[in-house]
Amino acid sequence: KGDSALSEVSLMKKQISALEGQLKALQASFAKYQKVATFPGGRTVGNKVFITSGYEGNFDDMKQRCLQAGGQLASPRNAAENAAVQQIALLYQKPVFLGITDIQTEGKFKYLNGDTIVYSNWHPGEPNNDKGTEDCVELYGNGKWNDKSCGEKRLIVCEF
Ligand code: GMH
Ligand code: CA
User: Fold this and answer.
1) Taking the domains of the chain in order of start, what are their residue ranges?
2) Does pTM surpass 0.95?
3) How do residues 81-101 score in pLDDT, each as one tens digit?
4) Cis peptide before 76 (omega within 30 of 0)
5) Considering only CA atoms, which of 135, 140, 13, 40 is closest in space to residue 82?
6) Ligand 1 centroid vs 130 CA: distance in angstroms?
7) 139: which strand partners?
C-alpha cells in the first residue's frame, strides 16, 4: 500500500509538470493572439478590450452591432479606459459614440444598463443639449466628451 501511494504521488508530479508546460504554451499563444486580435484598432485595459470594426453608424446601429457581437458599446469608466478609446478615435480620425445616454431623463447620463455614470470627461461647456436634441455622447480625438444627437453617424467601438 505504501509503495502504491508513493508511485501515485510521483505520477501526479509528472502530470502537474506536464500541465505546467501546457499552461505556459497556452499563455504564450494567448498573448500572441491578443496582439493579432487587437491590431490595429483594438486596445486592452485590464480585462476589457475596446475594438472598432472601422465602420460608422448611428447610435442604434452601433448598439445593435456591438450586442450582436457579444459585447456592448464602448463605455469608459475611468481615465485609462477613456485614453484607450481616444487612441482608437485618433487612429481612425473619427469621433466615437459611447454607450452612455440621457435618453431616459434629460441631463442624467447613464450606461446602457441604466446605472448612473461613474466617470465623465466633458469638453468645457458640455453637455449643452444643443437644440434640445442631444441625448448621446461622442468622444473626440482629444478624449473629451460632447453630447450629440443619436442619429449622427460615428465610429463604432465596442467593448468586450
Ligand atoms: C453649440 C455651441 C458649440 C458646441 C456645440 C456642440 C454640439 O453649437 O455651444 O460651442 O460645440 O453646440 O455642443 O453638440
Ligand atoms: Ca453638445
Assistant:
1) 1-37, 40-159
2) no
3) 999 999 999 999 999 999 999
4) no
5) 140
6) 6
7) 96, 145
Q: Would you tell me which CATH number, out of the four given (3.10.100.10, 3.90.180.10, 3.40.50.2300, 3.40.50.620), belongs to the domain 40-159? A: 3.10.100.10
Query: Atom of ligand 1 at shortest distance to CA of 125?
Result: 9
Q: How many residues does the chain have?
A: 160
pLDDT for 32-53, tens place per residue? Answer: 999 999 999 999 999 999 999 9
Q: What are the φ/ψ torsions at residue 28 (nearest 5 degrees)?
A: -65, -45
Q: Which ligand does the CA of 127 lie closest to?
A: 2
Binding pocket residue ranges, ligand 1, CB within 6 Å: 125-126, 128, 130, 134, 146-148
Which atom of ligand 1 is closest in space to residue 130's alpha carbon?
12
